[in-house]
Structure formats: C-alpha cells, structure tokens
Amino acid sequence: MKAVLQRVSEASVAVEGEVIGQIGTGLLVLLCAERGDTDAHAERMLAKILKLRIFGDDAGKMNRSVQDVAGGLLVVSQFTLAADTSSGNRPGFSSAAVPAEGLRLYEYFVAQARKVHAPVQTGRFAADMRVALVNDGPVTIPLQIASAA
C-alpha cells in the first residue's frame, strides 16, 4: 500500500463541480492499494499516518502528529501511485489492486480511520476528481507499507 501525505492548511475534493470533502488544517492522504495488499496493510498505513510527527510544535520543530493537532484527514483514492514508468513513456498500472479490491481496501481504510480519528473526509473512488489544497510548508511525505518478507 502506498500513500502520499501532504500537510495542508486546507484541502478539498470536488466531483462534477460539487465539493464532496474538505478539511482545514490536517493531511491530504492520496492512497493507493496494490495487488496483494490486505486489511493489515491498511491498518499499518493508518497507524503510521496518525502517528507521523510532521506538524510543528511551539518551537517550530516537526514534533506533533495529526492527532496531536486535532487535524483532519482528507483521503483520496489514487491508483496512479502504482505507476510503473520503467519502460517506455506510457505508465503501466499492473501493480495496482483490481478495482473491486482497491475499493474494498479504500473503504476499509476510511472506516478504520473514522473509528479512531475525526474529522475524516473523502473523495469518491474511481471518480474524476478535482483536488485543491494549500500545502503547508510545503511538507509532502511518501509512505509505503510492504508485505513482511
């Protein structure tokens, strides 16, 4: 499972001109389920995201988590994070989870997030979305949760 986190002062996602999710201070989470990912991968990814200390403390050091600052999560499905650009000029996406499994894992991740954190807003799986954000910092962190080999 892959994610790109962007620390934001605000972010929103719209589908067909309608805003369907928005947050103030928090994290925009671009989330990609890959073939072989499981619920355990989603749980580990969520735990890492919630505990990652990338918000400033009183001294300005990145020492607080999204939970510490009571920030929001805006979770947007992003299968293109699975892009393979190793050959040619057209990316391949064969490592992305098949759509049904990608949707299941995305919904599972969001449900688990909502159990332990608020607010959690979302995009719409497989929709053509417009994501707007004000990246704070800028701080952008890539994460990957791989199978234990």
Task: List its salient traits.
149 residues, alpha/beta, D-tyrosyl-trna(Tyr) Deacylase, Chain: A, six-stranded mixed β-sheet, two-stranded antiparallel sheet, 2 helices
Question: What is this structure's SSE topology?
Answer:
Layout: E1 2-15, E2 18-23, E3 26-32, H1 39-51, E4 55-56, E5 62-64, E6 72-77, H2 99-116, E7 120-122, E8 129-144
Parallel strand pairs: 3-6, 6-7
Antiparallel strand pairs: 1-2, 1-3, 1-8, 4-5
Structural features, described:
The protein is α/β, with parallel strands linked by helices and 149 residues long. It has a single domain, classed as D-tyrosyl-tRNA(Tyr) deacylase (D-tyrosyl-trna(Tyr) Deacylase, Chain: A), CATH 3.50.80. 21% of the residues lie in helices and 38% in strands. The protein has two helices and eight strands, in the order βββαβββαββ. It has helices spanning 39-51, 99-116; strands at residues 2-15, 18-23, 26-32, 55-56, 62-64, 72-77, 120-122, 129-144. Strands 1, 2, 3, 6, 7 and 8 form a six-stranded mixed β-sheet that branches. Strands 4-5 form a two-stranded antiparallel ribbon. It starts with a strand and ends in a 5-residue tail after the last strand. The mean pLDDT is 96.
